[in-house]
Transcriptional regulator with XRE-family HTH domain (Streptomonospora salina), 284 residues
Amino acid sequence: MADRHSPTVRRRRLSAELKRLREEANMTAEQVGDRLDWSRGRLTNMELNKWKRPDPVIVRALADLYGASEEVREGLVTLARQSREKGWWARYGDVFTDSYVGFEAEASVISTYQSMVIHGLLQTREYAAASDRAVHAKDASATERAAEARMERQEIMDRDDAPRLWAVIDESVLLRPAGGRDVMRAQIEKLIQISEEANTIKVQVLPLEVGLHPGIAGAFTILDFPNPVDPSVVYIENRTDGLYLEEPPEVETYRDAWDDIRVMALHPEASATRMRDLLRTHYE
């Protein structure tokens, strides 16, 4: 897999930059539409990142209209070209129903609390298949595709510039059977191995005895990016699509919850011990 680069993130950055330039030029969306003879919603959709393949010619025309410098103009055109590329996940359009993997591909830090299943970047193939069967119980081919896609997704952790992954897993996830005793044993053994050997991955277990905690509303993932112009994103998964929170107050609310959850969880060494105890008491 190539170094960190995602057309999803570049397209979002392009949308934000075009909006910023328009506002600096003191132009309304309606004024831009009139000047370029566009429909009322065309520019709005661009600025809201509701486009798939930005046209470099159109981007250059907007940059010219806003009076951008040559350097800025060429930078925007480059972003437009990068935004038109296809990520590896495009081959799995039947598996990935939203943009999450595109954001994950360029993230530098992934902080995730999981309350129902192991995070996809940490799953064994057998656990991935078992978790997908819970959704596609009657479609074996869909399950195989999902497991294949998840294994390819994990390749970002083998890159030289791999993101730092910090996962807090609710203990109930480790007690919830998925695919049988052997599958769960192999999955927990993998978590133990990762927690002890991987330099860029930290795994913590949130024990049941802590009782109620800030994560009771459900699982979430915070994605941070290496370029400061790309704002952080909170991702909340649901059955049909994902919810993305990007406004700073929303992100801070979840970051505060994340800080509380990771402090309440067992530290990594104690988490590995707890997982070994679970292997002995539940999966021998």
Remarks:
- The chain has two domains: 7-83, 96-282.
- The chain has a mean pLDDT of 92.
